[in-house]
Description:
heterodimer; A: 2 domains; 6% strand; B: six-stranded mixed sheet; 8 helices; 10 strands
Amino acid sequence: MMFVAPLFILTLIYFLFQSNTTPKVQLGVQNVDSSLVQAIDTEHVRIKPITSEQSARTIIRRHDYSGLLRQKDGKLTLTLANASQSDSATIVQSLRAAQIKLSTQAAQITIQAQQQMIHQLATQLKRLLPTVNLPATKAMAKPANLTTHYLYGSADSTFFDTLLPIMMGFVVFFFVFLISGISLLRERTTGTLFRLLATPIKRSEILLGYLSGYGVFAIIQTLIVVVYSVAAFKIQILGSLATVVLINLLLAMVALSLGLLISTFAASEFQMMQFIPLLIIPQIFFSGIIPVAQMPNWLQALAHVMPLYYGADAMSQVITKGVSLATVSGQLIVLVGFAVVFFSLNLLTMRRYRQV
Amino acid sequence: MTVIKVAHLTQGYGKTTVLRDVNVTVEAGEILALIGPSGAGKTTLINTIMGMLRPKSGTVNVLGHAMPNRQLLSQIGFMAQTDALYTTLTGRENLAFFAALQAVAKADLATRITYVAEVVNLREALDIRVGDYSGGMKRRLSLAIALLAQPELLILDEPTVGIDPELRQQIWQELQRLATAGTTIVLTTHVMEDAEQAQQVMMIRNGAVIAQGTPDDLTHKYQVPTIEAVFMKAGQMQDADMGSH
């Protein structure tokens, strides 16, 4: 199940983020200049002509529009429902774009008329004063055509392409943390840990055993997730697959040592679960789904103590931008640092069970 | 040869003191039974003897070495009070795993597993998942694990709990055989019959040793017919002692 569950989650997220287009916003329009109405971009806004004189609030509520545009005595009034901020933004942007378009059209007409006038004046002037040299009128430049190229991905890229690398790291982190923590917890509660320690085995050997076991698991899980992502979601891994596996492996090591450490503070699986909202869920917010650079300073500082911040960043860079191992080495060193710190703390807490 | 020598041991956890000025001497080939109520300190004492805990004060010497000593654990066979088994593995796999930890030679592994399984009557059940074992079967497997490496010192925490009288006899026969061959055995028990079969009995109550000696000596000394009565009488004397201070 540990191998299937992550694939299930990823597939669900894939379908959630499938649509590339934003839904059309409904804008009621009453008594507005037809030129403005025609200039509004109908790809994102659906125009609904209104004749009723009722208040904007009543009309919006009755028809569940996102906004209502009214013109009266030369003044435009826009009432926005604002139940969804993105819908409001779409309407405002479309209106602005429409107004700019109209101004540009008006300016073009004026300029052309002026050019003609200048041309006529110049011709008459030349007739009257044939020796005067007049500057040639230049034709107005046409607006340039815009071609868009994409460095990474394509016009069909969805948010899922940004999300997948982060989810890959998160899924490994989550499962390894939980299962290793609960595993050691069971060894403690059933007494097998004590019996283990009643043999000449070193405490560090027990911890290393967990590391290698779960390390192998992390490698297998990463490979399965990668193969599935490439086959089912047609994701392109621009960077080296070995680097991807390495990053996930390091994330697993951090998750493992953290899970083992936390399990010493939990007396039962029930308590262990309660650490999830505390330690795992916050990491998803700082993993890059919401841009960290736009967060307030203190939140950014908090992001820097989350292993997933570094791991997800490294994964994203390798998968979507194809950077080399050297470029993400900084983040990887931080991950190794986390693992070493947690591992040492584990050695200390193991003393509780046997003092040599 | 003195296998265990505990001198003036004071032991506890944090601020609580569990054992006060305890002295124990066990010679090679002896069977010592520790009796006492729950929480008296029996498990703490054997954990200290094994070297899992460092003494707060006093000394512990086992097989000539000062405890704690990690390497010495390969010569000590331990049976825990809880079952302490991997329930997803079979009996045989559990035995093989712990044998590897005790550095049992690969060549001897199969013979040792068969032998210890024979002693505890688990030969037919070796390849069944431990999760499907009955309570008594789990105890027997636990004991088998302790016997695997042919240790010089056997420490058994409540070995005959949940075991029927016939099997109990069988196990005691094996324990006596091992003792005659030179293995030292320390066990804790609530079962008075076990105490009567031991060579030395030590009664621990409220962190102190209230009676110590061979079963015969004790019944003579306290002038009571059974070990159980010795325990009750010694306990009353301890209460009286503590009351008068």
